[in-house]
Amino acid sequence: MKSPARNTMLGSSGIAVSTIAWGMWRFAGDDVAKARQLVESALDAGITLLDTADIYGPDNGEGFGAAEALLGRVFAEAPALRDRMVLASKGGIRIGVPYDSGAVYLPQAIDASLTRLGCERIDLYQIHRPDLLAHPQEVARSLDDARAAGKIRSIGVSNFTPAQTDALARFLSVPIVSHQPEFSPLTTTPLWDGILDQAMQHGMSVLAWSPLGGGRLAKPEGDTASAVAALLDQKAEEAGVDRAAAAYSWIMAHPAGIIPIVGTQNPSRIASIPDAYTPKWTRAEWYDVLQASLGEKLP
């Protein structure tokens, strides 16, 4: 199988993005110079798609919106950086609720994200998790209004089922351009639940969160993780890269053109992210990893 291109289109949006994204779940602290270095490291590595969310903050012991606010301080110091990236953010989670994509809250959430970021528009706005108490027509109206007002350029979903995605798409005036599921060599559910099939059918991009299995590939425990890590290490050694690069390359080998969201907050590791373009997988090798993950042979 051939290696992926370094750039692609974000679904049907007409927006060009890198085929690897940098995620800001752990983007934290008060050191703007350090934060700026991380952003510049990603851009210098050829990563143009940067992914954040309004809920990023509390997991780091900070307040709601902290990651967006820190990025906003970076933009205030270096405004030109904003024009070098495709900025993705997410909303619809409220602490203690837990989900709210209703007609009152969602427009407020979009405006609050823009205020924290200090910019006029978010390139990709995704509903972070489906709100089971919001009719998809209600959600669609808020998103369409925000797009018409120039506050967002394109619309995506995160952690949605294919049916939930279809329901929302039915009421939107523009196509949904992205899915954002969890996907890694250890979490392969999107291969079977219809998400990747739907994405390929409709030309949607797929952004994979936790591409290293939530750290389980870095420090494998148990037979399954150890078996997968061993196979990734074989490919990594062959290609002269590390296990993480091999894992990202395995993800990108799928024909859906999956974009792994890399969350490292280490500048040197960010600089090495393009190593993921080096490994080349055969079909047999790719399926070997999948079968090790499943713990059984495919029929």
Automatic annotation (TrEMBL):
<dbReference type="InterPro" id="IPR018170">
    <property type="entry name" value="Aldo/ket_reductase_CS"/>
</dbReference>
<dbReference type="InterPro" id="IPR050523">
    <property type="entry name" value="AKR_Detox_Biosynth"/>
</dbReference>
<dbReference type="Pfam" id="PF00248">
    <property type="entry name" value="Aldo_ket_red"/>
</dbReference>
<dbReference type="GO" id="GO:0016491">
    <property type="term" value="F:oxidoreductase activity"/>
</dbReference>
<dbReference type="InterPro" id="IPR036812">
    <property type="entry name" value="NAD(P)_OxRdtase_dom_sf"/>
</dbReference>
<dbReference type="GO" id="GO:0005829">
    <property type="term" value="C:cytosol"/>
</dbReference>
<dbReference type="InterPro" id="IPR020471">
    <property type="entry name" value="AKR"/>
</dbReference>
<protein>
    <submittedName>
        <fullName>Putative oxidoreductase</fullName>
    </submittedName>
</protein>
<dbReference type="InterPro" id="IPR023210">
    <property type="entry name" value="NADP_OxRdtase_dom"/>
</dbReference>
<feature type="domain" description="NADP-dependent oxidoreductase">
    <location>
        <begin position="20"/>
        <end position="277"/>
    </location>
</feature>
